[in-house]
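FORM 7B - TANDEM STRUCTURE REPORT

SECTION 1: FIRST PROTEIN
SEQUENCE AND TOKENS:
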Amino acid sequence: MPDCIFCGIVAGTIPSKMVYQDDRITAFWDIDPKMPVHLLMIPNTHVGSVNELEERHEGDIGYLLRAAQAVAKEAGVGESGFRLVINTGPDAQMSVGHLHVHVFGGRPMTWPPG
């Protein structure tokens, strides 16, 4: 998608503090972190949100969630704990229209979230 910020990060035309990239997913530090560890993980193929997922995306989304283990461990929160969050739609505060998983960690969290 030409006007998608996250597609630009995947393509390398928009700079980011990347922590991992392969042919299926990209992980990078959030530019406005809400936690000591706040990473974003995205599929390299544009998917607007969870509402746009199709059967053909299942492999990449499963791969992305499995990769979250390694990314969280590399960020130092694999053992202490981390939270994965996927916002969908405006009421959930989704601000970029490209499916993304927030990896939060680095301090104790409460429940329920805001």
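SECTION 2: SECOND PROTEIN
SEQUENCE AND TOKENS:
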Amino acid sequence: MRKLRSVLGDFANQGAVIDLAADSDPTAGWSSIYGNNLLATYNAFEASRRADVRRVIFASSNHVTGLYEWDRPYDAIVAGRYEGLDQTNIPLLTSDAPIRPDGLYAVGKAFGEALGRFYAEEYGLSVICLRIGTVNAADRPRIPRHFATLLTHKDLVRLVRCAIQAPDDLAYGIFYGVSNNAWRFWGLDDARESLGYVPEDDAELWR
């Protein structure tokens, strides 16, 4: 609770909070996930509640459903093996799909999504969880998987702005954050309809 009290003042008079605080290493161990991600996530939601913040935008992760990439056709797509695949007929994963975390980092993000729903339903806090794709300093694909999962810096800004400006009656939602990549396998219809998010970039520009 001491760490929570130390940040309460930072949340005062804020209309929206964007929670990016975490150890972002998908392979991070439990001690780091617990000491950084879980506690920071709780503090962000609880401090927002106490400060009467209107909305929390929680940076979740595509890794919450990462183990689908063990299955066909996603395993071939992330490996860059496109033979026999129709990019116009890829079964898209949506937020309705059961979670399949691919590590403790992903488990921590799933915790954040669940905590966000609790705060939305118990306290009336508007919560938007963004399952962010691949964002890197180079702002371009670095390995074959990135041609499906890239979220460019510009599209990330578009996504967060849309989340901030979404209608006040959006109580809770989980949305994938990815650019309009030809080989993406995460659905964007709900983000378009609920948030107005329309990505403009495509990883194929760097093919």
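SECTION 3: OBSERVATIONS ON SECOND PROTEIN
The longest helix spans residues 30-50.
Helices lie at 2-11, 30-50, 74-79, 104-123, 146-149, 153-165, 189-195.

SECTION 4: SIGNATURE
Preparer initials: ____
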